[in-house]
Design goal:
This protein is an alpha+beta fold and 425 residues long. The chain has 13 helices and nine strands. Helix 1 packs across helix 2. The longest helix has 54 residues.
Amino acid sequence: MVDELTDSNPELKTLQDQRDRVVFEQEKLKQQEDEARDVLGGLRRELRQAEELIAQLEERQKINKSVPEEVVQRLNELVGTFTRKIRADNVVDVQKKMLDALNSAQQALARQLHEQERKTAQVMLEFLQQWPERRGDLFPEQEYRGDFIALLHRLENDDLPAFEARFLELLRSQTQNNLNRLLLQIQRATQAIRDGIEPINASLMAAEFEPDTHLQIEVRESQPAEAREFMAKLKEVVDGVLNDESTLASEERFLKLRAVIEMLKITDETPERIYRLRLDTRKHVTFLGVEHNADGTRGAVYDSAQGLSGGQAQKLVFFCLAAALRYQLTGAGLSTSRAKNCTIEHDGKQFSRFGTVILDEAFDRADSQFTRRGMDVFNEFGFHMVLATPEKMLQTIQDYIGGAAVVQCFDRKHSTLALLEIEDA
């Protein structure tokens, strides 16, 4: 009905169309208003975010009043990778991108730092394994990086490579001159002892140990385990010292040399007893007393007085004692000029300048035959004998002494002394 009226009335039709256009324009304006409101809300949000960012930056600026120029430059370069210019509409986006980039870079640097710390710890551990003596003040931990670096600087300043040739020369010369000499001295000590025993054996040939039998001393090598171990390490250092060798081989030789030197120190690990077993060559041999018969055959062999009767033990001891005293006091085994200084001549006979021998409990367990033989030995060697012996031995030794001192103690408190000459007795 309305459409018919409108169609039949052109004027009304025109008004109808105008009204529709006004309604359309009104709706369009309403939509634009809504869109403007949305944009305004977004701008207000961005404004608040910008204000908050400014406040954060101002707060950070208060904490970090001065930012290094290098940092500012690198941040500006990073900003340039995202935008030509920071504006209100892109400041938040640029901030987010920068934070993401900085976090990624920080994580990458953290991984690199972790890897470097691992490598550093490995290098420190390898250094301490090669030089274990530094473990007392260094540990393969990050807290000790400064100490390791300080040690490195000290070694670099010392310029040790410049002294490498001198080190090799000293190592070779010291090893050859000192340790090689020590090795030879220990190796030759047994023969030197045998040579020293020969004059004593010559003295023992001056008197019979038994009828038609003489006692001789034999030397046998008997190194203890401590000495054998030391000799083996010493040989490792000395062997090949004259050969040309690399720096690494020289350093290995130096470490062996240091181990040998440590074995020569008296410490808790190397007490004095072990030290003496290594170096005292007298403990590297044993002595045997061997009877030699007139026909050249060997008789009894004595390695100690164990198992002998009291008289037999005294007999063995006195024979060795007399021979040793002759060797020490009468110049036996010395050169002719030195031997003259040890003796004097009286009535055409040679006597020791110092020839007094004092024996306590002399021959108290020996039979009279051995006692006379022992006194004959001492007389033969030219010794002046002072004997402390029980009265029962006076009859046996009276032919060998010129006087006596009789000591008596009746009350176990006071002693009396009586002197007499045997010729007057």
